[in-house]
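Q: Can someone sanity-check these two? First one:
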Amino acid sequence: MMDISVIFGIGTDLCDVRRMAQALERHGDRFAEKVLAPAELATWRARTARSPERGLRYLATRFSAKESFSKAIGLGMRMPMTWRRCEVANLPSGQPCIVLHGELKAWFEAQGLKAHVTLTDEGDHAASFVVVEHAAAPAHIPTGDHP
């Protein structure tokens, strides 16, 4: 017997970094405050202070990843999915990971789900891809040897 995982959902998103710049011009920090979780917001502010371009790319990759995640779980931006309940953090290795909060975390854990995310940015675009697994019950995988 071995544990198997099955794909619950996948999501991908392509974000135009210039649209993020326009949103910040129109709405100021309120846009970032709406989209980013508290820890992300602190990182965004620090990166923006050092390099506005770097801060903009950070915002775009996080926006994209949250869009991808919302697609992978099949909810879109409907409860319990919200921008700030879904955080994109980094493991010590630098690998991005999804960290959930509040009702979204409770819903996700109750489903027995696990997420994997990857991010990239190049030129005027940021992109992300999310795979969400649903851990299945242990399954017997036939080996070809039958008693």
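And here is the second, same format, sequence then tokens:
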Amino acid sequence: MSSLSPFSEAADRLLDALEKALEALANNHDLDWQRSNSVLTLDVGNRQWIINMHAPREELWFAGSGGAHHFQRDLHGIWRDTRSNEPFATVLTEALRSVGISEKPELPE
């Protein structure tokens, strides 16, 4: 039995999937990332994004030079931006496109 909360388990699963997606993208693009517990730092060119869990609000935060996004899981388990309602995968894809990576990362919704 896991001692993690449902939020932490879901956020860990997304961060694990994100690392696998980044490994696939790294085959064709110059990107680097580092994960330390619940914080993933992604560097692409001169851009850096930080993706981390914020347990008190049960949110994932995605921050970089283009601004900050907060994501909460909806009733279907999809991580959605609390302001725009966009899924996490869509926001990440748009961020990657801004640095010339056109492939969509393989992420669960």
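A (reply): Looked at the second one. The mean pLDDT is 92. Strands lie at 31-36, 39-44, 47-54, 59-64, 67-73, 79-81.
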